[in-house]
Amino acid sequence: MRLVIDMQGAQTGSRFRGIGRYSMSLVKAMATQLGGHEILLALNGAYPDSIDLIRAAYAGLLPADAIRVWEPFTPSGGPDVVSASRRQVSEMMREAFFSSLSPDVVLVTSLFEGFRDEAITSINAFTGTLPTAVILYDLIPLIHR
Questions:
Q1: What angle do CA 117, 118, 122 make, to 5 degrees?
Q2: Which pLDDT tens digit goes with each residue over 99-116?
Q3: Please, is 4 exposed, middle or buried when counting C-beta atoms within 10 Å of its C-beta (0-12, 13-18, 19+)?
Q4: CB neighbours of 40 closer than 8 A, spacing ≥ 6?
Q5: Distance CA 32, CA 104 (A)
Q6: What is the pTM of this model?
Q7: Are 42 and 5 in contact (CB under 8 A)?
Q8: What does the alpha-carbon distance between residue 61 and residue 69 come to, in Å, rounded to a whole number?
């Protein structure tokens, strides 16, 4: 099985909090139990300072080519109409990128990213054929926007 993991939960400001720590730890644990399965990590290129840190964290656990970077249409992190349009395009670009990796399953480490930054999260914006699982930590961001 090929599992593509959206690592934005370990790239945004969440990387300094529980979501980032949990995302990194979960993937490390999964990487030690691969069996015949394959893990690909998808990183958002709008967070260049996090890419080398994540690559280093998984050196020796995952092959270097298992870490892939996609580029969103930026800036898209504001409440204005232009940012909203860029965000919609970026959602389709992200999912097209995931689709190009031919995953059996996509795992999103945090769906509640991108309210004020360049994180792009979505499900079925491009195609409805990618089986997707999402980790839900809590609903505080939904209740307290």
A1: 110
A2: 999 999 999 998 877 566
A3: buried
A4: 2, 3, 4, 5, 66, 67, 68, 101, 103
A5: 19
A6: 0.89
A7: yes
A8: 18
